[in-house]
# Entry
Amino acid sequence: MKKLFAILAVMGVLSFGMTQAAMAQDSTATAAPAQTEQVAAADDAAAPVVVEEGGMHKEIKTKFIEGDAGFMSLVAIALVLGLAFCIERIIYLSLAEVDVKKLMAKVEEALEKGDVEGAKTVCRNTRGPVASICYQGLMRIDEGLDVVERSVVSYGGVQAGYLEKGCSWITLFIAMAPSLGFLGTVIGMVMAFDQIQIAGDISPTVVAGGMKVALITTIFGLIVALILQVFYNYILSKIEAITSQMEDSSITLLDMIMKYNLKYKK
# Structure
């Protein structure tokens, strides 16, 4: 009898233990997904939040597409061609700039020694319109001061034309860019009225598409014109500076030739 009670007691303990273990497994299994979700949530909270931001180029690309790619492409072409002419002029004018005071000092030093060929060599080895004008004047130093003056003035006009070469194209693209933008504006307005006619309604939703195209094309056209205008004004300032140097150098050269004639051709 005692053995029977002992066996029953052992079986009861084992069954109780197995039941507790099973309940523990069930609770663990039930809690596991929740814990996993909590851990994942904690990891997400701990991880830095990455906000995908479109940069400036993406925003411009989006607006470019929204503004009707056909007219926006024409505005972009005007910008590219206008900038190409601007860069070409800036490079040319930068190469045309020289130290005029140093050049004229070398020419004056050579003429004071009576070395006309040396003065010509100095001008020939120096780039820029100022040196070219001085060389043309020295080429006719033996033909009289009046001939030298006419030669300098005539060649100065030629060099001024070289400096201004291509500027008319820049002004063309400055005028074209906003004109293309306004053309896109008119077409956008026509699109808006077409949509109103089709829908038979004048609600903002119907009009918004065409109006958006109109405004975007106008904005881009004005921006392109402003960019090109800034470059164009910079180019004009450089042309004015070089032209002023040409005029001053011409007057200085005539004075040098007059002194040379008085000294060596009495």
In short: The first helix runs from residue 2 to 46. The chain has nine helices and no strands. Residues 1-53 have pLDDT under 50 and may be disordered. The two ends are 159 Å apart (CA to CA).
